[in-house]
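re: ur question from yesterday

yeah so i grabbed the chain u mentioned. its 253 aa long if i counted rite. heres the sequnce exactly as i have it in my notes:
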Amino acid sequence: MLLVIDVGNTETVLGVFDGAELAAHWRVTTVRGRTKDEYRLLLGSMLEMEGYGRSRLTGVAVSSVVPPATHALRDVSGFLADGPVLVVEPGVKTGMPILIDNPREVGADRIVNAVAAAAMYGAPAVVVDFGTSTNFDVVSANREYIGGVISTGLEVSQEALIRATAALRRVELTPPRSVIGKGTVEAIQSGLLYGHAGLVDGVIGRIQAELGEVRTLATGGLAGTIVPHCVTVETVDEFLTLHGLRLIYELNQ
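ran it thru and got these structure tokens back, copy pasting raw so excuse formatting
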């Protein structure tokens, strides 16, 4: 069994694979200052509680965009599983050429998503990852990572709006009764949800104008909130990143 860990800026997602099947998964808040002892206690307790002790786990694969968490998990992973530990970083085989100006600066999660998209859904493809930022990652017809787009995420947009204004407040991210809000709350909801959906459709439309037709996939914690209001996203795969970690781990064994 393989333990996979994807550390994002806001949330950390964990999964256990039994072969190619995702047997269990968890989502916890990312805490930048969390120590390796805290990770060992938190993750070890979660896994033990579900019956996934160290002796059952034969390897670990990690992707992280939070450097302190990367270092801590590199040290802790040996206590969580009885097998090799793979951290996705420059030098790790991914099976996918990275055709951008500086391949070392691409976030590990973006490459992992691209690998999973090409392997599971085909190419060319665009993966939209809805997290702290909204990332668009593009895979060519030859299964090459050729770049992408980074935009402000939905929740970050809401926080910026609240901080920059005196009277506006945080709202629940649910659809209003109509696009034309009948009050301040509905007006904010409309702007955030439909505005972000419009951003996604606009960017994908421009990518398609450059590449032609592509598969369009979505993942990330906010995908279920935004994708219902998009017209260009075909498939939502909540665990795309976890599958990508599995595939890269297998390639490196």
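noticed a couple things. Helices lie at 36-49, 67-80, 108-121, 154-164, 184-211, 223-226, 240-251. also The radius of gyration is 19 Å.
anyway ttyl
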